[in-house]
Amino acid sequence: MSEPALLQTASQVRDAVRAWRGRGESVALVPTMGNLHDGHLSLAALAAGSADRVVMSIYVNPTQFVEGEDFGAYPRTLARDRAVVSAAGGIDALFVPDEADVYPFGLQRAVKISMPALSRELCGASRPGHFDGVASVVLRLLNIVAPDLLVLGRKDYQQLKLIEFLVADLSLAVRVSSGPTVREPDGLAISSRNQYLTDDERARAPVLHAALRELGEAVLAGERRFEDLQRQACERLRASGLEPDYVEVRSAADLAKPAEAQSPSELIALAAAKLGKARLIDNLSFEELAAPR
Ligand code: AMP
Question: What is the pLDDT of residue 136?
């Protein structure tokens, strides 16, 4: 059990990082919106294995919530998060900034990042501006913390690909690494938003993962009619009372539309669906599916 430092301003985190660097230590940043769960902790463990110091940020970023979304209702559980992080160990500092630290001139005057076309596909099609907001906050956090390593989850695969692109395109001096999706025993990807589900919805939610597995197994077996597979997966979701936003097979490297000749190991299936108050997302790389369990 190790108590992480609680840093609440940009200057506090800069001072801490400067002191570590002065001792030749490397620093990893794990950005989160809090309400911590095993998915977040798995990324912290990954970070601790690759850097001397781990900073986890907790910030519910207003600019990535689209009109009508759950910004106000998003679970903010700092006292519990601090206890979770202390019990887990391996995290040196929790950075919990105020809006004024992240957006010093306020949201209206803030510089905005405009991400390329991929940001308007898949999840971006129904959440206009979401990935611009994500990119803005990640860039701001990177500038404040100046880590050597940024650790993200493959659970949010489109986000990961867009942030990798942001880092490459702006020549940012940070490495990006990613960790696999941590799941409940029934396959449901762990997410803070799962707590919006009623008991009945929770019992139906694993169909999202099951539908992706079924689609992936068909592709591994040689099926290449992706449109048909996507439609069947959507039907399966609807039959369980989910409202599919999309199910799509894409190229895993860059999320481009897949070519028929691509081998399954180069592909990934991604899905999003509404279930009650929750919008659930998941993905499955076919490489992951083919690996022995
Ligand atoms: P969030 O707090 O939901 O913004 O997520 C913060 C980071 O945790 C992001 O990089 C997510 O991709 C990652 N993450 C969220 N859920 C999971 C999960 N179940 N497994 C692995 N990483 C996750």
Answer: 98
Closest Cα to atom 6 of ligand 1: 32
| pLDDT in the model for residue 1 | 54
pLDDT in tens, 238-276: 999 999 999 999 999 999 999 888 899 999 999 999 999
Query: Is residue 37 annotated as a catalytic residue, yes or no?
Result: no
Query: At a CB cut-off of 8 Å and minimum separation 6, what does 59 contact?
Result: 31, 33, 34, 95, 96, 97, 102, 137, 141
Q: Indicate whether residue 158 lines ligand 1 (CB < 6 A).
A: no
DSSP state of 178: E
DSSP secondary structure letters along 236-269: HHHHTT-EEEEEEEEETTT-PPPPTTS-GGGEEE
Q: What is the pTM of this model?
A: 0.98
Spacing, Cα 40 to ligand 1 middle (Å): 6
